[in-house]
Amino acid sequence: MTKLETMIDQAGKIVILGHVNPDGDCVGSCLAVYNYIKEWDSSKTVTVRLERLPSKFSYLSGFDAIETEAGEETYDLCICLDSSDEERLGDFKSCFDRSAKTICIDHHITNRGYAQENVIDGHASSACEVVYGQLDESRISKRVAECIYTGIIHDTGVFKYSNTSRKTMEIAGRMMEKGIDFGTIIDGSFYKKTYMQSQILGRALLESITFLDGRCIFSVVRKKDMDFYGVEKSDLDGIVDQLRVIDGIECAIFLYETGIHQFKVSLRSNSIVDVSRIAAYFGGGGHVRAAGCTMSGSVHDVVNNLSAHIAEQLEREKANA
Q: What is the β-pairing status of strands 251-259 and 45-49?
């Protein structure tokens, strides 16, 4: 038995947590473990606690069972997935604190192992890839496979990002062999957008600005714009990736306003800039090519501070060329 299965076997009451602003890999890994446990031993009490998710993930089994409040229960085991540190658990950190045993399964290189037991692979494409290695494949059902496949496609940009490996593709292939409708999963959860989401994307692209000799680009969406278009933070998914694929761009920055002089920052790069280092400097984290953080100040202040770190890495690369 793997480390995860051993801890599950010894627990009766289990809570599963992800990170704030859950994405496809977060919800996929959480529901993969949830369904695996429920199918393995239905006598166990298992609860998934996450912030409210967009409806595009409603095809995943267990979606309707997700609890959006932390509650006050105590647990035998807390399983943390795709969360690089305790702060990323948000309001659900209290569940972590009320658990007798804890395990973290993650793929972020910034994760230093905050749980009692940790399974961290910084080379894996996604938390779902790491989760797969902790499960008995003979017990992976179609429902579990849908969750794992969802997480992988979201954190690899449908196998386009540099974190995609041969192992990643092999795992995805094994999930496809379980009979999942992979085409519908990709279109429905990754590409499909509402009319309002398309409008806010168009505005963000139209108002974007390039800098550092056209090698970088940024765009910002204000709270008043989100209110005008009737969109929430989850509707902004994918904007930074559209900025990244513009011809000639090495590094893309997308900001959205969360409060007065407060911004959520998403960073993406193509081949040179290590955005995880930049995000970590400002209290965030992530991967070499995809990371994020929260920053305070005016848009000018935030972009200037980020620009200085990006320019430093670009200059170093130029000097070493």
A: unpaired
Phi, psi of 268 (to 5 degrees): -140, 145
Per-residue pLDDT tens for 271-300?
999 999 999 999 988 888 889 999 999 999
- Annotate 253-286 with b (16+ C-beta within 10 A) or e (fewer): bbbbbeeeeebbbbbbbbeebbbbbbbbebebbb
Helix (H, G, I), strand (E, B) or coil at 248: coil
User: Taking the CA of residue 134 as centre, how many other CA atoms within 13 Å lie in the half-sphere pointing to its CB?
Assistant: 28
Phi, psi at 289, each rounded to 5°: -105, -5
Residue 60 falls in which region: left (phi positive, over 0), alpha (psi -120 to 50) or beta: beta
* Whole-number Å distance between alpha carbons of 112 and 30: 20
Residue 85 has which token pair?
Answer: 């540190």
Tokens for 33, please give them: 């473990």
Instruction: Tokens 């992979």: give the residue.
Output: 182
Contacts of 294 (CB under 8 A, 6+ apart): 258, 262, 263, 264, 265, 282, 283, 284
What is the rounded CA–CA span in Å between residue 168 and residue 125? 7
Do 291 and 284 touch, CB atoms closer than 8 A?
A: yes
Hey, what are 163's tokens? 């974190």
Q: What is the pLDDT of residues 221-236, one digit of tens each?
A: 999 999 999 998 889 9
71: alpha, beta or left, given left = phi > 0 and alpha = psi -120 to 50? Answer: left
Q: How many other C-beta atoms are found inside a 10 Å radius of the C-beta of residue 303?
A: 22
Report residue 77 as tokens: 């085991």
Residue with tokens 């009737």: 230
CA distance 55 to 40: 27
d(CA 209, CA 203): 12
Reported as a pLDDT band with limits 50, 70 and 90, residue 319 is confident
10 Å CB burial of residue 95 (0-12, 13-18, 19+) is buried
Mean pLDDT (the chain, rounded): 95
